[in-house]
Amino acid sequence: MSSADIAREAAAKEAIKYVTDGAVVGVGTGSTAMVFLRELHRLISNGHVKDVLLVPTSTETEIEIINLGLAHLLRYPWQVNHIDVAVDGG
């Protein structure tokens, strides 16, 4: 694993700590955001995080949310009043 991959994993795992039950989560685009989304999927699937909504910033992220089987959690910016936490690379 490259140092960039290690940094992405670390950033994603740190960001996960800010996601609580019922949170509206903005999910950005790029490799770090995708690592975050896959980790969040794992936590949702295992029942560790519940009732979250996912707001993608791009079509790429929207497709990944759908591919992970999380389409029922998908919302668009005009469908939410706020975003509790947003994760993007950079």
Description:
This protein has 3 helices and 3 strands. Helices cover 42% and strands 12% of the residues. The chain has helices spanning 3-16, 31-45, 59-67; strands at 24-27, 53-56, 85-87. The radius of gyration is 12 Å and the shape is globular. It is of the alpha/beta class and 90 residues long. Strands 2-1-3 form a 3-stranded parallel β-sheet. Helix 1 (3-16) packs across helix 2.
Q: What string, H for helix and E for strand, traces the elements in order? A: HEHEHE
Secondary structure class reads: alpha/beta
Return Rg in Å. Answer: 12 Å
Strand numbers in spatial order across the main sheet: 2-1-3
Question: What is the global morphology?
Answer: globular
Mean pLDDT: 93
How many distinct helices?
3
Q: What is the distance, rounded to the nearest whole angstrom, between the alpha carbons of the first and last residues?
A: 19 Å
Count of extended strands: 3
Low-confidence stretches: none
Strand content: 5-15%
Write a compact overview of the structure shown:
The protein has 90 residues and is an alpha/beta fold. It has three helices and three strands.
Q: What is the secondary structure topology, with strand pairs?
A:
Layout: H1 3-16, E1 24-27, H2 31-45, E2 53-56, H3 59-67, E3 85-87
Parallel strand pairs: 1-2, 1-3
Features:
90 residues, alpha/beta, 3 helices, 3 strands, globular
